[in-house]
Amino acid sequence: MRVLSIASEVFPLIKTGGLADVAGALPSALAEHGCDVVTMLPGYPVVLRAIEKAGAKPEVLPLDPVLGNDARIFAVALDGLKLFVLDCPALYDRLGGPYTDAGGHDFPDNWMRFAALSKAGARVAQGAIDGFRPDIVHAHDWQAALTPVYLAASNRPRPRTVLTIHNLAFQGNYPSQVFPDLDLPAATWSIEGVEYYGNVGFLKGGLHACDLVTTVSPTYAKEIVTDGGGMGLDGLLRGRGTRLVGIVNGIDTGVWNPEADPAIAAHYSAGNLRARAHNKRAIEGEFGLRREDGPIFAVVSRLTWQKGLDLVAGACNALLERGIRLVVVGSGEAMIEGAFQAAHSRQPDRVGVRIGYDETLSHRVQAGADAILIPSRFEPCGLTQLYGLRYGCIPIVAQVGGLADTVVDANYAAVSAGAATGVIFSPPDEATLVAAVDRALGLYEQPAVWRKMQVAAMKSDVSWIKSARLYAALYRDLLKE
Q: Could you tell me the keywords of this UniProt record (predicted)?
């Protein structure tokens, strides 16, 4: 079964969030179920440099101009992935990240950049490359969501299409003026197409046109069909009925493996937790924290309202008064960044802050911190808590989305059964967050209980094994139709 996966970022080549981790890890997991996946992504400079640095020899495949822009495809195998890299210098050869310029501002032509990705993906799906015609096209998030729209608008035979929502908050809505340049039939400017309250809705159009919608956890699938969680698309999503399926994300347990992780100070396992203490000492040194026996709580996240990190910043003094040391790694909203930096200035030996994204540092923090705070107001799946489970860094999470699906709360029954893997609280506000931290501290002060929680967490199945099986089954069901 051939699958063309289309994504705007793919780990380890380019990453801003969990989408990249999913797009990078799922193909190899699907291979175990008879799926041959080729992943298509834009030819950002960092991607082309990675190909050059690896000494890979891509096959250069011609492609007709895409939305008026000269383009070609590089077919290459890299980092265990089969890739189609869309080389289109006019759209992707620029400084900055995949979505923003060097100053952090969205590229004004993002609509064109990702419409081109979708348009090129649709062409490839319909045989633009000799010898390659997929059975399934799997598009990820709004950046690839026009792919099923282009395919549905074509009179030519097309593969079956799956669209995965990684975060409904990002929908790709643009002014109606861009529609004439999308090379779509006039009929797609409709309620049943891409028109969305007078604008062009990339995600909205894809949700109408695809054969199947998936999202990244069962609980999030239930949340997004409600008035409160649907972000304006709940009616459309309710209308998809059984064509909306929630499958929880996994992680690459080879990359995230405390027994072999090259980024951490000392390797350890569920059977050898004593060695984990070396990583705690390393974190204290790296962040300039006072060395002591008390717990280190961590934040590794985008510092945004969605992630609830304003709650942690607001409760920071209360947390520190309880003897906690805090480590923060991430970037985001200026007010939240500033609040954590101010806390560090007041107590530099108790609060460590690194503003910015650092993949290897996140590994070290997960290996060295005792608990990780994830008080998200909504969370489609979340991967940070999965990393925490894998590394015995106990997650303290809000009861939303995938957080609720992947963490077992340390209530009396779960603790007694040795099944607890974290602390869950609701609703996400400062008072409940502090109460959850108090619960976690009570457990931490019982070393035998805490160790049991760490062991249960590390033995949790956070891999792609089960979820890849579910995706493969969905693909096969679509082909049977």
A: Glycogen biosynthesis, Glycosyltransferase, Transferase
Give dist(CA 39, CA 267) in Å, integer: 32
To the question of whether residue 15 is assigned a binding role by annotation, the answer is yes
Residue pLDDT, tens place only, 27-76: 999 999 999 999 999 999 999 999 999 999 999 999 999 999 999 999 99
Residue 322 lies in a domain: yes
Q: Would 180 be classed as within a structural domain?
A: yes
Q: Structural domain of residue 216, as residue ranges? A: 2-250+465-480
Give the pLDDT band (50/70/90) at residue 370: very high
| 163 touches 197 (CB < 8 A) | no
Comparing C-alpha atoms, which of 248, 200, 201, 180 is closest to residue 220? 248
Q: What is the CATH number of the domain that holds 147?
A: 3.40.50.2000
What Cα–Cα distance (Å) separates residue 231 from each residue in 126, 235, 333?
33, 10, 21
- Distance from C-alpha of 327 to C-alpha of 145, rounded to nearest angstrom: 37
Q: Residues 278-314: pLDDT tens digits?
A: 999 999 999 999 999 899 999 999 999 999 999 999 9
